[in-house]
């Protein structure tokens, strides 16, 4: 069934130009296309960027950030620019949500949420920009000091395919609020949202620079293409002073090594294998709904997917029956339908990887409670996979150790807290966790013991832009969101002011 959202012309894909060093043009590399994961139709064609494009964009960004039209803006004026970007996103919200859906196949409701979140992120960092203060140390006898924050310079923002626009906004908004310039390297297969964001930023900049000039067009560039070429060149470029990266752990570690050579700060938002815990006293309605949402929303293609669910033995059977019934009732299908809960996976090769993990789970003596296959009614359409739940796997099984990034959950019974915490923490990742219990003191005790950057209690996968987000262990370092995250894009310069009326006594006779 085709809906109004699926009426893009399959025979006439749109050709996308991108913004490089202030010019809307084709990048200099090979022509490639992007596809809609629902029906494999070609949505857009565009050229990949080259190493030369990286150099051109970064040099132009460095020049742009130093121009008085940008560098001369007062904080409230920079905030006004960010507000205008937020308004620009909101003015095109529905169109952007549809483009996002065509880019990566997420259900339309989810895409709307991501677009709204991107607008909210620019609005929030406008407020941060305007209220941010430097630190003054009051007079200490013969001197006082002021630590001023300065923009770090050109920032490289490297993003994955699973939540475009929100990922890009979380890097762009604080970087611009701090006064930096940004070169974005979106995922090769989902470049659209970064390009649209650049279009909105470009339009918002008209007349918003110091003295009513335009914000320099080269302040933000978007370079689609391969990570190993474009992303790598961006990380290595000597004028790039910070990398904000979201993606896989192996790539993130490689970036950190290169960054160490330049002594360049990086933030790394990486993978996860998040545990969710259903305690003996949990409200099972809440727990079932929360665990289903935690693993199966976004088809499990989420860094915070709650993919290991530990259930107290006393409620294991009751919980399992309800969870499986809930999973089987999920509406899997056309992402443009308002009622769809799970859309297709991003690509055929990604689905093949998930199928390998399911086969591995079965080989490791796991028992399938539901799913484990492609939905029959959607066999001819898109890269769909059924919501899948295993039991009988040990926490040490490979399927429970590694990030699958798909709709696959392992149910594991537990009976004592010490063993539970040990199992939850016995994993290379440490991004998020969820706890369902009526006992908040118990929740706090468990939450403190869990090695994760976020702990959700009686809820899961809810976000506030004002709350810091990030991981520990192999889930990354650094934090995005929250007031303090603007400082990740700044350096400090400290000034000491002599107040003494007499010369330094040390050198006077
Ligand atoms: P990926 O690491 O393959 O790619 C991420 C980005 O890095 C892409 O733009 C890619 O082109 C680029 N890249 C690849 N190789 C590079 C290199 N050598 N140098 C520089 N850049 C390079 O990840 P993916 O498959 O796009 O996304 C899925 C992963 O992202 C999962 O592991 C998921 O958990 C993680 N993720 C984490 C968060 C978080 O906030 N922690 C959020 C979303 C996704």
Summary tags:
disordered N terminus; six-stranded mixed β-sheet; seven-stranded mixed β-sheet; binds nicotinamide-adenine-dinucleotide; alpha/beta
Can you give a write-up of this model?
The protein is an alpha/beta fold. It has two domains: 274 residues, Aldehyde Dehydrogenase, Chain A, domain 1 (3-Layer(aba) Sandwich); 183 residues, Aldehyde Dehydrogenase, Chain A, domain 2, CATH 3.40.309. 37% of the residues lie in helices and 21% in strands. It contains 15 helices and 23 strands. The structure holds nicotinamide-adenine-dinucleotide. Nicotinamide-adenine-dinucleotide binds next to α8 and α9.
Low-confidence sequence ranges = 1-6
User: If you average the pLDDT, what whole number results?
Assistant: 96
Please give the CATH architecture of the largest domain: 3-Layer(aba) Sandwich
CATH top-level class of the largest domain: Alpha Beta
Rg, nearest Å? 25 Å
Work out the count of structural domains.
2
Shape: globular
Q: Biggest sheet: strands side by side, in what order?
A: 15-16-17-14-13-19-20
Report the structural category.
alpha/beta
- Please work out how many helical segments DSSP would assign: 15
Give the full name of the CATH homologous superfamily of the largest domain.
Aldehyde Dehydrogenase, Chain A, domain 1
Percent helix range: 25-40%
- CATH topology grouping of the largest domain: Aldehyde Dehydrogenase, Chain A, domain 1
Bound molecules: nicotinamide-adenine-dinucleotide
How far is the first residue's CA from the last residue's CA?
93 Å
**Largest beta-sheet characterization:** 7 strands, mixed
């Amino acid at each position: 069934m085709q809906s109004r959202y699926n009426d893009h012309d399959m025979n006439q894909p749109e050709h996308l130009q991108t913004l490089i060093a202030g010019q809307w043009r084709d990048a200099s590399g090979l022509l490639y296309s992007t596809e809609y994961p629902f029906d494999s139709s070609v949505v857009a064609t565009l050229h990949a960027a080259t190493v030369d494009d990286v150099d051109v964009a970064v040099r132009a960004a460095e020049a742009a950030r130093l121009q008085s039209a940008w560098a001369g803006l007062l904080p409230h004026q920079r905030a006004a620019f960010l507000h205008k970007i937020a308004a620009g996103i909101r003015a095109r919200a529905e169109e952007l949500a549809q483009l996002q859906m065509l880019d990566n196949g997420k259900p339309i409701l989810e895409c709307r949420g991501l677009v709204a979140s991107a607008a909210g992120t620019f609005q929030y960092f406008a407020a941060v920009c305007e209220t941010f203060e430097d630190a003054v140390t009051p007079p200490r006898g013969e001197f006082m000091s002021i630590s001023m924050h300065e923009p770090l310079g050109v920032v490289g923002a490297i993003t994955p395919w699973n939540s475009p626009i929100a990922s890009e906004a979380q890097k762009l908004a604080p970087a611009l609020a701090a006064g930096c310039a940004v070169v974005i390297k979106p995922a090769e297969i989902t470049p659209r949202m970064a390009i649209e964001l650049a279009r909105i930023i470009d339009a918002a900049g008209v007349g918003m620079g110091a003295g009513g000039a335009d914000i320099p067009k080269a302040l933000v560039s978007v370079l689609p293409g391969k990570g190993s070429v474009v992303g790598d060149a961006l990380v290595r470029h000597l004028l790039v002073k910070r990398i904000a990266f979201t993606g896989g752990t192996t790539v993130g570690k490689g970036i950190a090594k290169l960054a160490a050579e330049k002594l360049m700060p990086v933030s790394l938002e990486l993978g996860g294998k998040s545990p969710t815990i259903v305690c003996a006293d949990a409200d099972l309605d809440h727990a079932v709904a929360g665990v289903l949402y935690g693993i199966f929303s976004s088809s499990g293609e989420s860094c915070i997917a709650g993919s290991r669910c530990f259930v107290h033995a006393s409620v294991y059977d009751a919980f399992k029956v309800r969870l499986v019934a809930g999973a089987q009732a999920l509406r899997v299908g056309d992402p443009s339908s308002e009622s769809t809960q799970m859309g297709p996976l991003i690509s055929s090769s990604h689905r093949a990887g998930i199928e390998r993990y399911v086969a591995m789970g079965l080989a490791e003596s796991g028992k399938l409670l539901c799913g484990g296959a492609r939905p029959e009614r959607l066999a001819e359409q898109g890269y769909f996979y059924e919501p899948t739940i295993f039991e009988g796997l040990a926490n040490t099984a490979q399927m429970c150790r590694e990030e699958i990034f798909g709709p696959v959950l392992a149910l594991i019974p537990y009976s004592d807290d010490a063993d539970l915490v040990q199992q939850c923490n016995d994993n290379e990742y440490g991004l998020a966790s969820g706890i369902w219990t009526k006992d908040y003191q118990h929740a706090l005790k468990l939450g403190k013991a869990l090695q994760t950057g976020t702990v959700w209690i009686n809820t899961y996968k809810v976000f506030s832009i004002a709350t810091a987000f990030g991981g520990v262990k192999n889930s990354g370092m650094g934090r995005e969101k929250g007031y303090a995250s603007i400082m990740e894009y700044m350096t400090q310069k400290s000034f000491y002011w002599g107040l003494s009326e007499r010369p330094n006594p040390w050198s006077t006779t």
